[in-house]
């Protein structure tokens, strides 16, 4: 049986395929919609993201909150000053806050695919993410 983060049951999300959205980041990075639902003025989108070894999501931010669960691999997460705001391993959860003042990038510095299950809580109709310019800092 597939483990599901607690938010899927709470929100009544069903695991029905959804519409494809833009693929984040570098070569081989992929995302697929597992479920989506609109409640009031919010879209709740459950998505699986896979990042191959040595690849990254690209610099971006979101218009709403994200809640991620690391299903496989290790995520190295950096803010726009290139400071690490965490290294997340299999079984870890992280939260990303919204806004253009919260630009970040996720990298897979490991040797196996990084697989994330992400719940996006966005204003209705907002994109999954918005590209941001490379801040020009040096990642450690």
Describe the structure.
This protein starts with 5 loop residues before the first helix and ends in a 9-residue tail after the last strand. It contains one helix and ten strands; from the N terminus they run αββββββββββ. Mean pLDDT is 87; it is low at 7-24. It has a five-stranded antiparallel beta sheet with strand order 1-2-9-4-7. Strands 6-5-8 form a three-stranded antiparallel beta sheet, with no helix packed on it. A two-stranded antiparallel ribbon has the order 3-10. The protein is globular and about 40 Å long. It has one domain (6-117): Jelly Rolls, CATH 2.60.120. With 140 residues, the protein is mainly beta.
Topology readout:
Elements: H1 6-11, E1 30-39, E2 42-51, E3 60-61, E4 65-72, E5 74-79, E6 84-89, E7 93-96, E8 104-107, E9 114-123, E10 130-131
Antiparallel strand pairs: 1-2, 2-9, 3-10, 4-7, 4-9, 5-6, 5-8
Quickly describe the structure:
With 140 residues, the protein is mostly beta strands.
What are its keywords?
1 helix, five-stranded antiparallel β-sheet, mainly beta, Jelly Rolls, 140 residues, three-stranded antiparallel β-sheet
């Amino acid at each position: 049986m597939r483990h599901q983060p607690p938010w899927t049951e709470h929100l009544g999300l069903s695991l029905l395929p959804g519409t494809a959205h833009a693929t984040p980041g570098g070569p081989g990075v992929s995302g697929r919609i597992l479920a989506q639902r609109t409640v009031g003025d919010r879209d709740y989108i459950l998505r699986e993201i896979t990042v191959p070894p040595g690849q990254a999501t690209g610099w971006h931010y979101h218009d709403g909150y994200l809640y991620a669960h690391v299903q496989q691999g290790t995520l190295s997460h950096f803010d726009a000053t290139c400071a690490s705001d965490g290294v997340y391993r299999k079984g870890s959860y992280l939260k990303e806050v919204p806004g253009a003042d919260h630009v970040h990038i996720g990298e897979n510095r490991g040797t196996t695919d990084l697989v994330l299950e992400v719940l996006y809580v966005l204003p209705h109709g907002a994109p999954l993410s918005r590209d941001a310019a490379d801040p020009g800092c040096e990642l450690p």
